[in-house]
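Title: Request for sanity check on Transcriptional regulator with XRE-family HTH domain prediction

Description:
We are preparing a figure and want to confirm that the structure record we downloaded matches what your pipeline produces today. Could someone re-run it with the sequence below and paste the raw structure tokens into this thread? We only need the token string, no images.
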Amino acid sequence: MIAVADQRSEEGVMSRGGPVRRRHLIRELKRLRSARGVSQDEVSTRMGWDRGKIHRLEGGRLQRIKASDVIALCNLYEVSAEETEILAEIARESRQKSWWYRYKNVFAGPFIGLEAEAASLFEYSASIVPGLFQTKEYMAALMESSAGLMATEDEKSKRIDARGERQSSLLERVDPPRIWTVIDEAALRRQVGGPEVMKRQISHLAELSQRPNIDLQVLPFEVGAHAAAGFQFSILVFSEADSIVYIEADQDGLYLEEEEQVERYKLVFDRLQASAMSVERSKDFLKSLSK
């Protein structure tokens, strides 16, 4: 059953500036406007803004939300000074750049920032080893695929560096997220980079599976058709009441936030776990493949 990891509270998840805090800020501003019974057009008129600005702000399409705009909106909505300052501080923090901004041409969309703030991660990988668990050799071999051939050597190197920093920033920190991963047997059998690269990659997976915050299960061929046949996805859980589903695509991907959508994918993941090898059997299976 999918749940939030015990080691990180909701307050801990929301303690840094980033995509989750930004989402919280936007939701609060929309809630405060609705509570005052003010339409978006009325806000635009009373604030002296063009009609599109409030739509872009509440739709999450503004790259940066100014603290001064948040304060002005809070004054319009007659929000207390204390709550106004809390929301304005979130706006200030959300403007601070994190490590992944150095790789903005590598990481499309907000996924990396959201991943960095998740308390728990649930992922099903159908065709390749998940990015968080890839060795550099495996990454390099992927870069030689048809997509990778379109990049220069410098671009390939930057992509590998970016993925390495993503791994270390998430997996090696003091409070790593709780990670549940189901990997299709096909991803382990596919010879990316050849037998030696795969042997080291699978050994790396076996080592990671020993970590207390990582549960790894293998979905064997013998299962046949299953709940996620034909696609792969990730569920990012920030708190008991806040989760999103990410479905990877060529550039960015699809983000699902509606409660019914998220619950559907949680059910799919629960069924995948039930169909997959147990955590202990999966560890033994990985060890057998790495010999």
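Thanks, this matches our download. The CA atoms of residues 26 and 59 lie 8 Å apart.
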